[in-house]
Design goal:
Elements: H1 8-25, E1 32-36, E2 41-45, H2 49-67, H3 77-80, E3 105-107, E4 110-112
Antiparallel strand pairs: 1-2, 3-4
The chain binds iron/sulfur cluster.
Iron/sulfur cluster binds near residues 73, 75, 80 and 89.
């Protein structure tokens, strides 16, 4: 059975690398891949302009939030399940001061919302 992956972080990483390749070495990257060792598979990641702009938008949104002191506790199954601090964390879902959501991440599994905006039932919102 194939392991299931949360492609969001890996996709953003590849998309930022593709932007870095363009800016640093002047290469226009047309393809991006993730090689997963558990199943020895190579999976294509979208690195078109819109996908890369969305990845940058997510980072800009996160940095703005940090600079504004807007980084509430946002417990969610995806992040808390693998977190080293879950035994000592209240795992609450606090509201953001700024409700503006970041762009969706274009992953091999389609457009995905960042984990902080996922609700327990898989929908969006606070
Ligand atoms: S357990 Fe606490 S610190 Fe860890 S991801 Fe969840 S909310 Fe964040």
């Amino acid at each position: 059975m194939s392991p299931s992956y949360d492609w969001r972080d890996m996709s953003i990483q590849v998309q930022l690398y593709s932007q870095a390749a363009k800016e640093v070495i002047g290469k226009n990257v047309e393809t991006g891949y993730i090689h997963t060792l558990k199943d020895n598979r190579r999976t294509s990641v979208p690195v078109d302009t819109e996908s890369v702009d969305s990845a940058i938008g997510v980072i800009e949104w996160a940095v703005r939030g940090i600079l504004d002191g807007d980084f509430p506790m946002r417990a969610c199954p995806q992040n808390c399940g693998n977190c080293d601090f879950k035994a000592m964390c209240a795992q609450k879902r606090q509201a953001f001061k700024n409700e503006t959501q970041p762009p969706q991440i274009n992953t091999p599994a389609g457009l995905k919302t960042i984990a902080a905006f996922e609700s327990n039932d898989g929908g969006g919102g606070v």
